[in-house]
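Researcher: I'm preparing a figure for a lab meeting and need a structural model of a single chain. I don't have an experimental structure, so a prediction will have to do for now. The sequence is pasted below. Please return the structure as tokens so I can convert it later.
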Amino acid sequence: MGKVNQKGRSKHEPFIRLHRGVTGSAAWKALSNEAKALLIEIWARHNGVNNGQIGMSHRRAREALRAGNVKVQRAFADLQAKGFLIAHYRGHFISKVLAGEGRASEWELTTEDYSGQPAKHTYRKWSENKNTVPTLGTAGTDIGNRSDENIIQINETSSDTGNRYGRKRGAIGS
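Model: Understood. Here is the structure written out token by token.
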């Protein structure tokens, strides 16, 4: 290892260690560009001992990414859902009581050690098929499902009317 000062920190310029274990993971590849940029911004605030207390507010994130509120919210949600960040403190902004005072959210990077414990690496457990919420038009939802097993063939001479999926009124899947 290189030269360090009395506190064990590098005497050289700080850097972010973005290794192939992170960039090669399925979770990293599924992140949006805004989420990747936000992760690097938060990682840049990590000094080796402040994991779990890395402050990053939505306002600072919007300034750093030069993006709007919706993109920043999605980036934070994406990073948490894919296992790169854990929120230890949710920030707040009280405009009337404290005359505009607020406190930024505090984050833990799962790629770094936390409180003497090894890194959690929860992003490694994420997989593309973890979405358990059925979406419109997928198996398990009746609305908009156009799979062959649910479509009823209607005879042109039949007097029964069907909807646009070929189903008879009142008969779902029969």
